[in-house]
Amino acid sequence: MSQCVRRRQAARGTRRETGLGTVSEPAGAVEATTAHGDKGRKGLFARIALFVRQVIAELKKVVSPTRSELLTYTAVVLVFVVVVMIFVSALDYLIGLGVFALFG
Asked: 0.90 exceeded by the pTM?
């Protein structure tokens, strides 16, 4: 989305929430007040409930890999780990030779 469109939507207060398909309230909307007079401040349990709802909504978007993808990713990770192990072992061996040559 271009910056021009974003600015216009922000000015009107009609920007869509990503993935939810809901339109936010207009910019001039009156916010709810609590007994303490805090504008828009929600209680602890309301915020926890909102967090849990958002987590569940995000988890519904997760797509599990297929068996072939899982095997491919596992092979790539194992090969990478072996390569890094060889590199670190070689580095350790060379540094050991250097230290032995200096102080041995």
From this structure: no
Cβ-count burial of 69 within 10 angstroms (0-12 exposed, 13-18 middle, 19+ buried)? exposed
Rounded Cα gap, residues 45 and 35, in angstroms? 16
Residue 71 has pLDDT above 90, yes or no: yes
Helix (H, G, I), strand (E, B) or coil at 79: helix
Contact 18, 33 (CB under 8 A): no
Q: How many domains does the chain have?
A: 2
Residue 72 and residue 104 in one domain: yes
13: how many CB neighbours lie within 10 A of its CB? 13
